[in-house]
Amino acid sequence: MIRREMIDWKRATESLLVTIEKQQADKRSEVIERVEKLLDVREQLQKNFQAPFTKEEEAFGKEIVQLEQQLQTKMKDFFEVIQQDISVTQSKKTNMKSYVNPYRNLAQDGAYYDTKQ
Asked: What is the dihedral of CA 98, 102, 105, 109, to 10 degrees?
């Protein structure tokens, strides 16, 4: 018999995979909140995983490990997309500031040399 915590952990992992795969750019904050909640649930459930494990639980554990590897890949991709969006936003912000005030970043040493003397 497989422990209830392990089954719930697998369901939470599957929900995470579905949430990340079906995320939309306009609802990203909602997706991030849902991901955080599911990760917290998984963390609480994982604390209850303790040996000894039955043969069924060991076989179930192998499935869990495969799901975890898939989740790690999806999470990595998800966070890379977020990082790219953040860097694009920051570069747009910098470009906008230079467009509004193009002479702001020029070096001003205050020296004037009169070459006609």
From this structure: 180
Distance of CA 36 to the CA centre of its chain: 10
If we measure between CA atoms, which residue out of 54, 41, 39 comes closest to residue 5?
41
Tokens of 83: 């990082």
Lookup result for tokens 């929900």: 15
pLDDT digits (tens, 9 = 90+) for 17-43: 999 888 777 788 898 899 999 999 999
How do residues 50-93 score in pLDDT, each as one tens digit?
888 889 988 988 999 999 999 999 999 999 998 999 999 998 88
89 is written with which tokens?
Answer: 């936003």
Cα gap 78→18, rounded to integer Å: 12
Return the closest-CA partner of residue 9 out of 36, 52, 38, 51: 38
Report d(CA 35, CA 104) in Å as an integer: 42
Which residues, in sequence order, are CB contacts of 63 under 8 Å at separation 6+?
10
